[in-house]
Specification:
The chain is mostly beta strands. It is built from five helices and 45 strands. The chain has three domains: 137 residues, Pectate Lyase C-like (3 Solenoid), CATH 2.160.20.10; 124 residues, no CATH class; 153 residues, Pectate Lyase C-like (3 Solenoid), CATH 2.160.20.10. The chain has a 45-stranded parallel sheet that branches.
């Protein structure tokens, strides 16, 4: 049976309406996204369009005038904008507006300084190479908050002495809100440098300097071939350095130069090949220094915290999750902390989850207090994996100290030693110490007091597993000390001098050598490797005495029966 004409007309009408609606939707989408329009065209295309439409000199060939209706289909110039997507930063002030050329030859310092003095809020460097013959002074109290922003391809060549950008503020308070004066919040808050390269072309050129600044931010900046990269002087508060490359400089990468500074975070940055050090804090009054997730390599000292003879020093520091390696010659170190201030030893340092290698001394602590090293891995220490001198209250837990067989250096004989000298109140727990060579022992405690060594492994260490010399009230317990191929005279634990030491409950594949006056040893299993211990003879149990049988009682006479008379 055929469908009625009425239903056929209805379905035909619905099909036509659907097709019309689809065509209208496609047309609207094409109009909005087929090319740049007045709303979505990059601002960088405006100068390009002006150059095309500008009338040339008389007699020159003129380009045909563009049809305004065809502007929609015209491709835009490549965008040169940064964070925030197309059109960012809105209302930016370009240094080109003040005469900077960015050709790499012209000295653009005066033009850039005029742009800064105009108090733009956001100062933008379009792609180009901007040569500066002198430092750009950013007087925040006069020009107000300023962000110096560059796009990919921006290079600042510092061709004169001093920093490329010097930020100067008036903040004299602390990080507490009630100490920040209203003019600081109004005029000086959070100056920023972001998204550009600073390249030195003068022996005294530097990167960025800050003095009296509140909440400085340096982000996505490459600084190289200058003297100091980021240089903090006198007094600053709340500094953040993130996602930066501070590389191949003659001085220090990040220099806290006798500065009064609390709260500084150095995050996710690459700080390498700086001949004066990677991150250096010297003298001053520095608190709350956080170094996290960085790759810090091939600086003479990768991280140096030097409080020597300073009144307040550097303290309250966390160094976490970094790769810190490759030194710059003799006496190089990955972390060196010198805590002897004028009155106190400074420290309060947490060093956690880092990878250390390839320097003279991986971690060097001297005159410090309250330092914790947890969950790190150490190798390729040309002299020491760890050297601690005259320190108090140290805790080492869950670290691996050893060698890396994937590198050719293992063919050489390098010590990788652990040495504590003159230290007091130390806890060493759950350590793996292996393959210490050309050293007295895997761990040396010399002139130390109140050291607790618990649950550690000392494996294949030359000389001895542990050596205690002239130490007092030290305890070694629940450790495994083993050597697969010990040399003649090798001892698992050697105790020389000192007093009141306790060596208890250890598993030793060698002998325990301990002078009687040095302390007490008990419960240790000590034997040469691969030699079965001779079992002790069990005592023969005494024979138990056989109890005597009780006497059999005499049978009493039956009642009523007298003795049987004798026969006559």
């Amino acid at each position: 049976m055929n469908p009625s004409p009425r239903y056929a007309v209805r379905w035909l009408t619905l099909g036509l309406v659907s097709g019309l609606l689809g065509w209208l939707g496609w047309t609207a989408w094409s109009a909005n996204f087929s090319g740049p329009t007045a709303e979505n065209q990059s601002p960088a295309a405006a100068p390009f369009a002006q150059d095309v439409q500008a009338a040339p000199a008389s007699g020159a060939l003129q380009a045909p005038q563009a049809d305004p209706t065809a502007a929609v289909a015209k491709p835009s110039a490549p965008t040169d904008l940064v964070l925030g997507g197309p059109g960012f930063p809105v209302g930016k002030t370009s240094v080109r507006d003040f005469g900077a050329r960015g050709d790499g030859l012209t000295d653009d310092a005066e033009a850039v300084q005029r742009a800064v003095d105009a108090a733009p809020g956001v100062l933008y460097f379009p792609p180009g190479t901007y040569r500066l013959g002198k430092a750009i002074q950013v007087d925040l109290n006069k020009v107000g908050p300023l962000s110096v922003v560059g796009s990919s391809g921006v290079r600042i060549v510092m061709a004169g002495p001093g920093p490329a950008f010097r930020f100067v503020g008036t903040h004299q308070g602390t990080a507490s809100p009630n100490t920040v004066q209203p003019p600081v919040w109004q005029q000086e808050r959070m100056p920023t440098v972001e998204g550009l390269e600073i390249l030195g072309d003068h022996p005294e050129a530097s990167g960025i300097q800050a003095d009296g600044v509140m909440k400085l931010g340096v982000h996505r900046v490459l600084i190289r071939q200058v003297f100091h990269g980021v240089h903090l002087v006198r007094r600053n508060r709340n500094v953040i350095i993130s996602q930066c490359h501070i590389y191949d400089n003659r001085g220090v990468g990040v220099y806290l130069d006798d500065v009064d500074l609390h709260q500084i975070n150095i995050v996710g940055s690459h700080i390498s090949y700086n001949k004066g050090g990677g991150i250096v804090s010297r003298a001053g009054n520095v608190r709350n220094l956080q170094v996290s997730g960085c790759d810090i390599e091939a600086n003479v000292v990768n991280i140096l915290l030097d409080a020597t003879d300073s009144r307040y020093g550097t303290a309250e520091v966390a160094i976490t999750g970094c790769t810190i390696q490759h030194g710059g010659g003799p006496d190089s170190a990955n972390i060196r902390i010198l805590g002897a201030g004028q009155k106190y030893r400074w420290g309060h340092v947490c060093i956690t989850g880092n990878v250390f290698s390839d320097v003279d001394t991986n971690v060097h602590l001297k005159d410090t207090e309250d330092v914790a090293l947890t969950g790190n891995t150490f190798w390729m220490g040309y002299q020491y994996n760890l050297l601690a001198e005259n320190c108090i209250r140290l805790v080492l837990s869950g670290n691996v100290f050893g060698r890396n067989p994937g590198y050719d250096y293992v063919k050489q004989v390098l010590p990788n030693a652990l040495r504590f000298v003159g230290c007091r109140d130390v806890v060493l727990q759950g350590l793996m110490v292996h393959d210490v060579r050309q050293a007295e022992a895997g761990l040396v405690l010399e002139d130390c007091e109140r050291v607790n060594v618990v649950g550690c492994n000392f494996v294949d260490c030359a000389g001895a597993g542990l050596l205690l010399r002239n130490s007092r009230r030290c305890r070694v317990s629940d450790c495994l000390v083993d050597h697969q191929q010990p040399q003649d005279g090798w001892a698992a634990i050697r105790v020389q001098g000192g007093r009141d030491n306790l060596i208890i409950g250890n598993l030793l594949s060698g002998l325990l050598e301990m002078e009687p006056a040095s302390g007490q040893a008990s419960g240790n299993l000590e034997r040469p490797r691969d030699v079965e211990p001779v079992p002790e003879k069990s005592p023969v149990p005494e024979k138990r005495p056989v109890p005597e049988k009780p006497p059999v009682p005499e049978t009493p006479p039956s009642p009523g029966k007298g003795p049987v008379p004798e026969k006559p």
